[in-house]
């Protein structure tokens, strides 16, 4: 699914195809805390009487679409010589006192801090040797991690970004990257959030000057190169 804009802004939006030597797959916040039915978010808000239907949508999309597509993407990037980066969210301290004030209640309520079970990356997406794992405490990765210096040191300026939640940590990180000069592609069917309209809005807005929106299959075809 290639997303295009229907007005003048499409004439000014970058369209940079992936070069494996410069490309990196960025997986955002694929952790048990908010990315699994076995995680704290589900235990608190889904597995209760009258549980939130929006979370059923969220976890259904993660299980049926996002995780399988991220597995395909990670395998393809590794095979082509691209890199894979995992971004995790969560404070170092259990009381979240090292995190911004607006993030602390969610961290403490979900028990999401470094070393906790809910802080772990989903087993289905376990990092492999040569992958990079960084930690953040903010919604966007560039505000609270060394991602910018790491990417520049590695010479990786083409980012395929996906993860959860589409309209929060994924979108903010992708916009931060674009504003720092990176060529960014959002992988639409490798992202999830709690409402389809929020997901769609992110994709529509991001394609307006920030960068590209592509499907998993489109990214796989690019990273593989000419047949």
TrEMBL record:
Domain (Isochorismatase-like) ranges: 66-215
GO molecular function, one term: hydrolase activity
Any Pfam family hit: Isochorismatase
SUPFAM superfamilies recorded: Isochorismatase-like hydrolases (SSF52499)
Alphabetical keyword list: Hydrolase
Name of the protein this chain belongs to: Cysteine hydrolase
